[in-house]
TrEMBL record:
Record-linked PROSITE patterns: HTH_CROC1 (PS50943)
InterPro entries the UniProt entry points to: Cro/C1-type_HTH, Lambda_DNA-bd_dom_sf
Span of domain HTH cro/C1-type: 25-80
Record-linked Gene3D superfamilies: lambda repressor-like DNA-binding domains
GO molecular function: DNA binding
Organism field: Caulobacter vibrioides (strain NA1000 / CB15N) (Caulobacter crescentus)
Protein name: HipB-family transcriptional regulator
Lineage, opening ranks: Bacteria, Pseudomonadati, Pseudomonadota, Alphaproteobacteria, Caulobacterales
Amino acid sequence: MSRTAMNPAKAALTKSLRREAGRWLKAAREAAGLTQAELAEKTGLRYYTFVSQVENGLGRVPIEAQAVWAQSLGLDPTQFARTLLRYYEPELYRLLFDGAAEEVEPFVADQAAQA
């Protein structure tokens, strides 16, 4: 089955959501008191520039790395993955959690308060 080209509106939404995810991750990193280099080291990355790219919305945290990122940031891995899913795959998030009135930003505030 071939993939169809993404329409411009969906591409713009995806880009916007990636930037929002990046801002959320940057806030979580700063709340944990880590630099990009420190987070890269804790997550086993060779270069901090990957963290920078993710925070700028140019990349995303790979699924297989989400648990270690969450632990490095002092966050619950399940909530971390769920929050990223909301940004990275909004349709899947809606299908799985529709009706679950969860706000992304209060989660960040709650996690920062616990740190």
